[in-house]
Each structure stands twice: as structure tokens, then as C-alpha cells.
């Protein structure tokens, strides 16, 4: 399958070169390089990423290069099998008035990610890029997107799963108050192992996902819904002819004095590499609350999220909400309550105070988290700013252990081109190798396009989540240098 994809990409590159002619060529991109030395493991890593694209009239070509150099194979902070260097993404694209065609690597989302979502989160090392062809045609109020691509997932040192996806989506806004959409995605996968011969009935499978969605805007209310159904084989267990379904509903109501928001989910046998639907769980910006984020079960879960925001004059705003998740037998898996008060009581002082209480259930037992946080932003003379963040939390683990965590950070902005930060974290947890961490960082904007950052000290690891995807970051002790440049 790769050969026709390469030919398609090469054809678009040739068109770009021939079509450039007298057209100006615009090149833009970024360079990010990070070097870290961990004194505890006596290991170092260089992690570099270069992104660029060149545009000439309606043609665009681009690539992403990634270098990940380890001083010792046993020291790998991201805990992933990443090549020492690779052209991670490469693509060529034609952009017409109503037609867009792309060959090579691409990302795509159908609906709200229930039937298909291929995307990258570089911070979480999550990348489900597709390699193939994507075409989008917008003749009027409707748009048609068709795609075909493959993606290789590394399951172990020797085993790889090759995913293939072919799909079409039609979306449109036939009325000012409504948008509709429908899609069909055919997916297949094939497992290959370099060391052993796998049974044929356990190495391949396929399924078909059909979905429909609608968005309605009715005065002060905005309503949305999407339903999808899958038929075929479970991509995790390989069980034959398993049917799955996914339902998502949401609504926003502007009452003038308050804004209300609600979500409902029902996911049954729907987990897949290319699925990333709404979680109906709040994404927290606070560190301790983010580490307690619940990870949903797309094969057996239903639940809701409700939230309201009430402004109290011009200086205060209150936000509060709750979420819950259960399996289809009715057993509780998770619940959380959350509240935040944003304030700007003084001209030179603003910030927020927040709290969260959650429980996650497993086999009749639960892990409980209770967290509080406060942020104060103080404007100093000469356009300087001081930001102070305090966080504290307690955890009662499913194993019966309990501990307390604290975080204190101070960030000073003496000018637009300099940032100085210090972060202290402490814990009473008996399972940690240490009870405190302290790291300092200085970031300097050398020019409008270049920033350099230097950090030194110790940093606690932990869970980091965004949009339903989580990664566990390891503990760090040493020096880290980061260069970011845009061109």
C-alpha cells in the first residue's frame, strides 16, 4: 500500500514545483531542541523536533523531523520505542477554492472523535497519524471528506499492529440554526511479530462504524448529539461479530445570570486506536487535580458531566460542577465534584481558588482524592508580574495507604522577555523514594523568534492527561536545556 501513497505524494510535490513559477514561496516552521542530563541515572537525552512547510500558491509541502538520542538505552524518560532519528511526518497538499487534496501523513477527526480521530499530542507522546490520501470538497453549504491511510502501532519490541482506515464524512449547515453530519469508516488491523508466528485467527480483524450527528442553535440554547454503531470484531480482544455503540449528548444554556453546561455519554464496546470521543470528565489545569483525572472505559461506560458558571459582579465568577461514570450493570466507577472562584478584587491582584473531591472505584474499593488550589497574580511596578500558585491534596489509595501532597510555585516576570520560576513539591507518601522536590527554571526570549530555557533541580513524576489521553512522567533530577525557534 505504501508505494501508491508515495507516488501520490511525489506527484503533488512535482505539481508544487512546476506550479510555483513566478509565485512567491513562503517557508515557515519551528525548531525545538531539548537536552537533559539526569544525575541520578547518569544518563542524558537529546530530543529535537523540526517542523517546516513551504507554500507556493495553492501548493504546500512539509515535513516533521524527530531526533531522540539516548546516552544509554536503559535510560529512556518517555518509555517508548522511538528511533534515534526519523522523518516522522511528510506531506504534500493542494488547496483550491473548494477542493483540498493531501498525500502523505495527515490527521483527521470525524464528528467529535467517536468514529474517527487521528491526531498528535507531542507533550504526551501520543501520535495516531495516518499515512495515505485525504481529499476534502466543499461545493457549498455541505462538505465531503474522504480518506484512506495506514498507521503502525508498536505493541512490543517485536510485535507491530498495522491499522488501516478508509472513510467518508459528509457535513453541512443547511440552516442557520442547524448543522448535520454523517460518516462511514471501515477499519482493519494486522498483527506481525518478528520472533514468533502468530495464529491467523488472532492477528487480523476488521469492523465498520456508521455515525450521525446534529448541532442545534435555538436562542439561548445550543444542543449537540452524535450516535455511532460498529459491527465487526473487537480490536482489543479479537472476538468475532461484536456490536458496539456510542452516544454523546451535550447542551449549553445561557440564562443571562448564569451559563449551564451538560454532557452525557454511553460507550459500549467502542475502544479503538482511532477513537477519542468526549470524556465527560473535567480537564484540570491544576497539577494535583490533573493527576487524579479519571481515565474512561470506552468498552463499558455511561455517565455525565454537569457544570454551571455564575458571574458575581465584575470582580468575581463562580464555576461548579460534578461528573459521574458507571458501567452498564450500574456499578459506580467514578464521581467528582469541582468548584472554582475566579477573582479580580483589586486592580493589581487577580487569580482563582479551586477545589475538587473525587472517588474512583475498583472491585468494590475506591481511591479518594481531595485537592485544593489557589493562584494569585500580582502586578508590580514597571510592568512586572508575580504569580504564586499553592496546591494541596490528600489521597486514600485502594490499597489502604494514605498520604498528603503539596505544591508551591512562584513565577516572576521582570519583563516581556524573561521568566523566572521555582517549584517546590512535597509528599508524605511512603511509596516515593523521596519526600520533596525543588526545581528552578529561567526562560529568556533572545529575539522575537528564539527562546532559551534552563532548568535545574529535582522534579516529581506523575500522571499527565489531556483530552482523555494520559502519560506517566518519570521523576527527574539534573539539568534541562530547551531551545525553541520559529521561522
Furnish the topology, listing elements before pairings.
Elements lengths: L1 H19 L4 E14 L4 E14 L2 E12 L14 E11 L3 E8 L1 E3 L5 E3 L1 E2 L4 E2 L2 E8 L4 E13 L4 E17 L2 E16 L10 E15 L2 E12 L11 E11 L4 E10 L18 H5 L8 E13 L3 E11 L5 E15 L2 E14 L2 E16 L3 E13 L5 E14 L2 E10 L8 E10 L4 E10 L2 E5 L2 E5 L2 E11 L1
Antiparallel strand pairs: 1-2, 1-30, 2-3, 3-4, 4-5, 5-10, 6-7, 8-9, 10-11, 11-12, 12-13, 13-14, 14-15, 15-16, 16-17, 17-18, 18-19, 19-20, 20-21, 21-22, 22-23, 23-24, 24-25, 25-26, 26-27, 27-30, 28-29
Describe the structure.
- The chain is mostly beta strands.
- The protein is globular and about 55 Å long.
- Among the domains are: 1-95, no CATH class; 337-487, Porin, CATH 2.40.160.10.
- The protein has a 24-stranded antiparallel beta barrel.
- It has 2 helices and 30 strands.
- The longest helix has 19 residues, at 2-20.
- Residues 1-20 have low confidence and may be disordered.
| Major sheet summary line | 24 strands, antiparallel, barrel
Oligomer classification: single chain
Output the number of helix runs: 2
Q: Could you tell me the radius of gyration in angstroms? A: 25 Å
CATH class of the domain at 337-487: Mainly Beta
Approximately how much helix is present in the residues?
under 10%
Strand content: over 45%
> Would you tell me the overall average pLDDT?
91
Amino acid at each position: 500500500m505504501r508505494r501508491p501513497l508515495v507516488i501520490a505524494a511525489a506527484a503533488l510535490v512535482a505539481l508544487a514545483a512546476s506550479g510555483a513559477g513566478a509565485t512567491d514561496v513562503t517557508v515557515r516552521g519551528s525548531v525545538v531542541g531539548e537536552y537533559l542530563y539526569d544525575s541520578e541515572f547518569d544518563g542524558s537525552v537529546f530530543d529535537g523536533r523540526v517542523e517546516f512547510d513551504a507554500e507556493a500558491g495553492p501548493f504546500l509541502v512539509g515535513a516533521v523531523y524527530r531526533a531522540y538520542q539516548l546516552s544509554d538505552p536503559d535510560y529512556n524518560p518517555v518509555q517508548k520505542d522511538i528511533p534515534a532519528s526519523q522523518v516522522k511526518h511528510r506531506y504534500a497538499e493542494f488547496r483550491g477554492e473548494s477542493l483540498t487534496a493531501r498525500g502523505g501523513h495527515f490527521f483527521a477527526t470525524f464528528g467529535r472523535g467517536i468514529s474517527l480521530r487521528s491526531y498528535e499530542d507531542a507533550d504526551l507522546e501520543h501520535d495516531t497519524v495516518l499515512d495515505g490520501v485525504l481529499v476534502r470538497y466543499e461545493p457549498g453549504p455541505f462538505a465531503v471528506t474522504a480518506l484512506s491511510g495506514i498507521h503502525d502501532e508498536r505493541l512490543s519490541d517485536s510485535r507491530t499492529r498495522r491499522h488501516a482506515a478508509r472513510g467518508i464524512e459528509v457535513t453541512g449547515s443547511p440552516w442557520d440554526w442547524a448543522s448535520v453530519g454523517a460518516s462511514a469508516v471501515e477499519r482493519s488491523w494486522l498483527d506481525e511479530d518478528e520472533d514468533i508466528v502468530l495464529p491467523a485467527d488472532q492477528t487480523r480483524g476488521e469492523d465498520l462504524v456508521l455515525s450521525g450527528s446534529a448541532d442545534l442553535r435555538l436562542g439561548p440554547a445550543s444542543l449537540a448529539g452524535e450516535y455511532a454503531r460498529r459491527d465487526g470484531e473487537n480490536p482489543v480482544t479479537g472476538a468475532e461479530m461484536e456490536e458496539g455503540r456510542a452516544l454523546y449528548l451535550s447542551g449549553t444554556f445561557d440564562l443571562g445570570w448564569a451559563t449551564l453546561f451538560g454532557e452525557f455519554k454511553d460507550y459500549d464496546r467502542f475502544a479503538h486506536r482511532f477513537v477519542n470521543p468526549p470524556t465527560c470528565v473535567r480537564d484540570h489545569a491544576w497539577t494535583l487535580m490533573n493527576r487524579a483525572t479519571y481515565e474512561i472505559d470506552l468498552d463499558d461506560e455511561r455517565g455525565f458531566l454537569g457544570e454551571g458558571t455564575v458571574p458575581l459582579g465584575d470582580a468575581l465568577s463562580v464555576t461548579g460542577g460534578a461528573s459521574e461514570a458507571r458501567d452498564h450493570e450500574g456499578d459506580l466507577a467514578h464521581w467528582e465534584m469541582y468548584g472554582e472562584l475566579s477573582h479580580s478584587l483589586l486592580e493589581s491582584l487577580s487569580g482563582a481558588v479551586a477545589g475538587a473531591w473525587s472517588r474512583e472505584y475498583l472491585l468494590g474499593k475506591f481511591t479518594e482524592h481531595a485537592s485544593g488550589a489557589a493562584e494569585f497574580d500580582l502586578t508590580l511596578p514597571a510592568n512586572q508580574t508575580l504569580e504564586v500558585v499553592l496546591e494541596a491534596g490528600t489521597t486514600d489509595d485502594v490499597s489502604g495507604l494514605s498520604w498528603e501532597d503539596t505544591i508551591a510555585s512562584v513565577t516572576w516576570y521582570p519583563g516581556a522577555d524573561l521568566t523566572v520560576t521555582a517549584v517546590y513539591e512535597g509528599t508524605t507518601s511512603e511509596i516515593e523514594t523521596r519526600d520533596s522536590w525543588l526545581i528552578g527554571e529561567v526562560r529568556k526570549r533572545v529575539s522575537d523568534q528564539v527562546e532559551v530555557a534552563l532548568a535545574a533541580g529535582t522534579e516529581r513524576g506523575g500522571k499527565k492527561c489531556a483530552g482523555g489521553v494520559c502519560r506517566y512522567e518519570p521523576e527527574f533530577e539534573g539539568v534541562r536545556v530547551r531551545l525553541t525557534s520559529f521561522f
